[in-house]
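F.,

This is the one I mentioned.
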């Protein structure tokens, strides 16, 4: 092709890429390939996970955001007082109305922002699925497992009893709740007796992303709330379920993305390593229980030693984890 003609083609292509005056700028979704690693809005970090899924960090716990033509779906609402900041970060990604909010547990850092998010969405509404984005803002459908909803209404340490818009509108007691959000099948899967008896995974099947809540976290040992139905065996079972969901792309890397309740975006290998860590520590404590060692002797033996640098945020947190395992295994021996 002659040089003059080639330059003309390049010029035409360049002009075509320039938006017309007054034309809306491309959405963030269209700019995914150029999306920086981290963007911060109102102190909330926005990280692109995959396709139309994002992770928001800094609102108390990780918040998962799915965007699409019908609107925005959230997994968890962050801590009390953080809803406005989280909403501002969401508006940096999409101007579509908020349509769904799923709580992975009744923990204060997951549900404290419920009321604020519902207000930002214009109130609760049970017809979100029917609206499919045709109304300007039909409100948001809030969802959680029934055990978690009951705990929200009762309250507890660090969480005053929730009322009104803060309480999820839709609850379920089955092993799984499925629905479509933005043309993508979403599965909310109960993981009984793990962190608590009301924790769920949220699996975005089309995007191949799992939002795992506090069943899986990369910043600490698991927090097992035995008083609210949590158990070490249930935690291991839930981690095994998460391993089964996740599929690596090649050489055990890439593939399914896993968003933890706290910490960084992971893949299956990260979950396997965490599961193995929990199982190894459980087995070590079980051996000591069989030898009739006391809980103080177990803590002094440091069965977590090689993992403390990764997961021990404090001696107290480590000892609480060991005490929980010890108490559960000691009951089995009686």
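My design for it:
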């Amino acid at each position: 092709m002659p040089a003059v003609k080639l330059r003309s083609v390049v010029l035409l292509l360049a002009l075509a890429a320039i938006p017309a005056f007054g034309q809306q700028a491309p959405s963030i979704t269209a700019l995914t390939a150029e999306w920086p690693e981290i963007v911060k809005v109102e102190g909330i970090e926005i990280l692109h996970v995959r396709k139309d899924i994002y992770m928001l960090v800094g609102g108390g716990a990780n918040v998962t955001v799915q965007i699409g033509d019908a609107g925005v779906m959230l997994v968890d609402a962050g801590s009390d007082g953080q809803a406005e900041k989280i909403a501002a970060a969401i508006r940096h990604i999409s101007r579509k109305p908020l349509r769904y909010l799923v709580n992975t547990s009744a923990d204060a850092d997951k549900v404290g922002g419920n009321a604020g998010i519902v207000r930002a969405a214009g109130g609760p509404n049970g017809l979100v699925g029917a609206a499919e984005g045709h109304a300007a803002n039909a409100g948001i459908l809030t969802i959680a497992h029934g055990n978690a909803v009951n705990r929200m209404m009762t309250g507890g340490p660090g969480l005053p009893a929730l009322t009104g818009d803060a309480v999820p509108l839709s609850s379920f007691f089955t092993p799984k709740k499925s629905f479509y959000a933005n043309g993508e099948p979403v599965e909310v899967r109960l993981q009984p007796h793990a962190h608590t008896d009301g924790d769920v995974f949220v699996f975005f099947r089309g995007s191949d992303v799992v939002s795992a809540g506090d069943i899986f976290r990369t910043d600490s040992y698991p927090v097992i709330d035995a008083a609210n139905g949590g158990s070490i065996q249930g935690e291991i079972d839930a981690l095994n379920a998460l391993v089964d969901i996740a599929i690596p792309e090649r050489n055990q890397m890439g593939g399914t993305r896993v968003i933890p309740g706290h910490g960084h975006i992971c893949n299956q290998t990260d979950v396997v390593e965490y599961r193995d860590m929990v199982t190894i520590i459980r087995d070590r404590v079980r051996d000591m229980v069989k030898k009739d060692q006391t809980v103080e002797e177990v803590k002094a033996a440091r069965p977590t030693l090689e993992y403390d640098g990764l997961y021990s945020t404090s001696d107290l947190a480590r000892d609480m984890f060991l005490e929980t395992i010890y108490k559960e295994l000691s009951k089995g021996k009686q």
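The first strand starts at residue 39 and ends at 41.

Talk soon.
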